Amino acid sequence: MRLTNPIGRGKPRAGTASRPAAGRSGRLSARIKLVLGGLAALLLLGASTVGTAAAEATASREYLIKAAILYNFARFTEWPEQVLASQGEFRLCILGADPFGAALASIENKPVQGRPAAIVLLRDPAQAASCQLLYLSSSEAARATQVLEALGAAPVLTVAEIPLFNRGGGHIEMLTIDDRVRFGINQGGAERVGLKFSAKLLNLADPTFDGNQGTRYAAPR
Questions:
Q1: I want to staple 186 with a disulfide (CB 3.0 to 4.6 A). Which of 38, 156, 166, 219 is the partner?
Q2: Nearest residue to 169 via CA among 138, 208, 214
Q3: How many CB atoms lie under 10 A from the CB of residue 75?
Q4: What value does the mean pLDDT of the chain take?
């Protein structure tokens, strides 16, 4: 993923030397490696380059990275065959305020489970059951438990950047700590609704987990 156009960088002031482009690119490249680390090596394994020039120019670097991670959560999860059999597209839904913005264009129509990814912005939680992957925005923190309960046993992979999301029944909780994207996996909860995570995804987890929810915490290494 090439993120070489920092947002909001204006022209240098008169009399001030412009920084070499190679230096900026090098520092940004190092930062991306820091953020993704081992995650890129495993989650992005075999994936085509994610991103379009237009999306990269306007989207937040943070959420371009997170969009790619979200996309690969979908790639490395298995749904019941009958769920996808009748679907002409893979519905990747965002419930609540959309933090990704233009970054979502970088994954739209990319192949997932043999189908093009369709980005769906939801305002009504009642529509969530029609999704294959549901990202709950932080704006939905107050009603996250209610949304999860309404989904029940529906085979919908739920992802959020909401504290204790997994303990409330969510499947993947994303965290950003010290510029590193980390995530916890509620393997038991996912399996109860018919979802299976690949070994590549599970192997990122460290030995710490919550036995009640089967939560593993994964961090780039």
A1: 166
A2: 214
A3: 20
A4: 76
